């Protein structure tokens, strides 16, 4: 999987929006952009994924740059329960013979201030 | 519905002993992954199962590590002659198929080798 770069940590005030950036300048045309998060003492949890168009779901929004070399995970109103490590991961489009394991980097540790 | 479950949640063992870690994936999920997370580190892929076969064992760190999956469901990860560097949280994840987007993680087994 291609490499991603994220800030080590970010802070947000409760009830405010949070924009978590991810750079992936070597992304290939077949890579999906996935986001997972890991709350303290828990296993990772899927958040959202996309290919080219912006995506929205109940948890978050994903904004993908036109050249796909960067993306931003948007939490519209941060809550204390959103405090976690957020991982941006590139995965090949399905259809190949690979195992599609997730390659986790260091992620961004998000702190939410009450 | 029931998620991925793992047992035991915590395991303390003496150096040199063998341990078995168990994973119960979500019913119907054909793909199963094992990862481990050492203190302060990111998640590291260990092995992937599709059904009962393991086409990707590339992440197993040594021949002391082995895993099996029976009946396309439960999987056990066995570590023989444990070493202190094996101390970590061992996470299991399952998904609906080889190229499925979401992996669902269990809570992990925290292994401590003394």
Helices and strands, with pairings:
The complex is a heterodimer of chains A (114) and B (114).
Chain A: E1 9-13, E2 18-23, E3 31-38, E4 45-50, E5 55-56, E6 61-64, E7 70-75, E8 84-92, E9 108-113
Chain B: E1 5-7, E2 10-13, E3 19-24, E4 31-37, E5 43-50, E6 53-56, E7 65-69, E8 75-79, E9 88-95, E10 104-105, E11 109-113
Parallel strand pairs in B: 2-11
Antiparallel strand pairs in B: 1-3, 3-8, 4-5, 4-9, 5-6, 7-8, 9-10, 9-11
Note the main attributes of this structure:
heterodimer; A: 114 residues; mainly beta; 4-stranded antiparallel sheet; B: 114 residues; globular
Task: Give structural notes.
- The complex is a heterodimer of chains A (114) and B (114).
- The radius of gyration of chain A is 14 Å and the shape is globular.
- With 114 residues, chain A is mainly β.
- Chain A starts with 8 loop residues before the first strand and ends with a strand.
- Chain A has no helices and 9 strands.
- With 114 residues, chain B is an all-beta fold.
- Helix content of chain B is 0%, strand content 50%.
- Chain B is globular, with a radius of gyration of 13 Å.
- The termini of chain B are far apart.
- The model of chain B has no long low-confidence stretch (mean pLDDT 92).
- At the A-B interface, strand 4 of A face strand 4, strand 5 and strand 10 of B.
